[in-house]
Amino acid sequence: MRILINFQDNMVPVYFDVDSKQPVQRTLRLLTSALEYKYYNGKQALQRCLNSLISIEIEGSEAILHSKSEFDSVALSLY
After folding, report:
1. Which residue has better confidence, 61 or 65?
2. What average pLDDT does this structure show over 47-58?
3. How far apart are CA 59 and CA 65, in angstroms?
4. Under the phi-then-psi rule, with left for phi > 0, alpha for psi from -120 to 50, and beta for the rest, what region is 60?
5. Which of 56, 57, 58 is nearest to 21 (CA)?
6. Cα–Cα distance between 40 and 8 in angstroms, integer?
7. How far is CA 3 from its chain centroid?
8. Above 70 in pLDDT, residue 5?
9. What pLDDT is stored for residue 66 in this prediction?
10. Of the candidates 32, 28, 35, 70, which has an alpha carbon nearest to the alpha carbon of residue 50?
11. For 30-37, which contacts have Cβ atoms below 8 Å and span 24 or more sequence positions?
């Protein structure tokens, strides 16, 4: 399943596994709050990834952040 979220004035696709046990709305709320927090308070490597974010993939309790450079892609724990 794919949902678009607005992050830093960009529409970013978020891909979910439809067999996830967590409600989609709760996961999206956790994701957006974690992204906003990390954008302002995260390490430089994470901030660089967030500046060039192209998509997000949710796998279990982790969000895989894909950026324009494959070397800047990181995993972010949601829980």
Report:
1. 65
2. 91
3. 11
4. left
5. 58
6. 11
7. 12
8. yes
9. 93
10. 35
11. 30/78, 30/79, 31/5, 31/56, 31/58, 31/63, 31/78, 32/5, 32/7, 34/63, 34/76, 34/78, 35/7, 35/76
Residue 50: both structure tokens together: 């967030």
Tokens encoding 15: 């891909």
Burial track 34-46 (b if 16+ CB lie within 10 A, e otherwise): bbeebeeebeeeb
Place of tokens 């967590």: 22
- pLDDT over 70 percentage in the chain: 97
What type of residue is 30? L
